[in-house]
Amino acid sequence: MKHAARLAILLCVFSLLLQAQPGYRPSPDNLQARQWFQQARFGMFIHWGVYSVLGKGEWVMNNDKMPVTEYEKLAPRFNPTDFNAAEWVSLAKAAGMKYITITSKHHDGFAMFQTKLSPWNIVDATPYKKDPLKMLAEECRRQGIKLFFYHSQLDWHSPDYFPRGGTGVTAGRPESGDFNKYLDFMDGQLRELLTNYGPIGGIWFDGWWDRPDANWRLGQTYQLIHDLQPAALIGNNHHRLPNPGEDFQMFEKDLPGGHTADFNSESKVGELPLETCETINGAWGYNSSDKRFKSPRQLVQYLVKAAALNANFLLNIGPMPNGKIQPEFVERLQQVGDWMGRNGESVYGTTAGPITARPWGVTTQKGNVVYLHIFDWPDSVIAIPKLPRAVKSAQILGRGTAVSHSTYLDHEVFKLPEGRDPYDTVVKVELAQ
Ligand code: H79
Prior knowledge:
Blueprint: H1 3-18, H2 28-40, E1 42-46, H3 60-63, H4 68-71, H5 85-95, E2 99-105, H6 122-125, H7 132-143, E3 146-152, H8 179-195, E4 202-206, H9 218-228, E5 233-236, E6 249-252, E7 274-279, H10 296-307, E8 311-317, H11 327-343, E9 351-352, E10 361-366, E11 369-374, E12 381-385, E13 391-396, E14 404-408, E15 411-415, E16 425-431
Parallel strand pairs: 1-2, 1-8, 2-3, 3-4, 4-5, 6-7, 7-8
Antiparallel strand pairs: 9-10, 10-11, 11-16, 12-15, 13-16, 14-15
Helix pairs in contact: 5-7, 5-11, 8-9, 10-11
The chain binds ligand H79.
């Protein structure tokens, strides 16, 4: 064989080895779960851990350069006796959310669940001594909400997370460690999460970007998850197109294809189900001084804009160290939920509509119905490009008030009745079959 051909084959084999789970074929259960996921459209993200005690967000260990020995002193102060799983799940339901994604472990390495693999966990290291994920899993099952686990691949606590990456370098760890041993530990904790909590919606990975050149053994980890629970969906917040073995693509602090966050500068939209996550104020973990709360109007419009781009919206809350959710979050989630109660039909189970984003709003669709989401429009008459089929009827969703329609100069013209929804007035347009 020619030298060049041999080299090409070698390169091919090498790149296959680097792929996450080459040849991954999602099981029928997994494909069904993806469909469910795409119809769900709205989920609750929860960032909760020992960092919540300080009320300075989930990056406080890194940002305040706390060594492991000092950071570990937070655990005895974390005693969330007011945590009530039923309250959290009921709030998610009241907001119109269909699933919850909670931090099982964030970058600080602290397990919010019972684990045999390290004493650095809520049952063994805190006076609380209970496993909140267990209670949450049971309550979610009771209330028909799917539960996903966020899991940080990056770990600022484990000495075996070595060589270290771009963050967590001030934790005072030894200048040695065995990365494969760390990955064994991570896989072991994932095995616990996928064995002890019943059927799980999926795993939401984060932190890969801390060491983009490392061998993360993604294939082995993904296979473990898919073997234990074939329907569990894997997503990874690496800010790149999904690898084989991943089941959905996620975006952080940007709509799909958006580039406002610098880590999304290269982001492209792939073929898998999509999800975007965002905070209510500016923080993921509890931050007692961040008062820049987004309005319910902004939150509803973000949810609708995501749906109009085929994406779910995973909206974050950072509960307080006592286990309660601050009133500013509760209020806003209830207001979003009130809107969803009247207008959910235009979000759940929809896909991107036939018309892309306009100054007045966006469109979604389901079957032969197109939903016009009118955020801002000063006039009562609105003209849009021709729809794919003839308009049969138009009405204001939730109110049933008729909207008059005519076709003029190759456009669909609608005359809106008096009275707008302060967040988003939805016109339900039924098309001819
Ligand atoms: O869990 C929440 C955050 O704690 C976590 N992801 C959400 C869901 C998160 N970690 N980092 N970031 C969000 C953004 C910060 C990224 C940076 Fe970097 C890390 C800036 C510099 C180091 C990534 C790597 C971007 C540039 C290099």
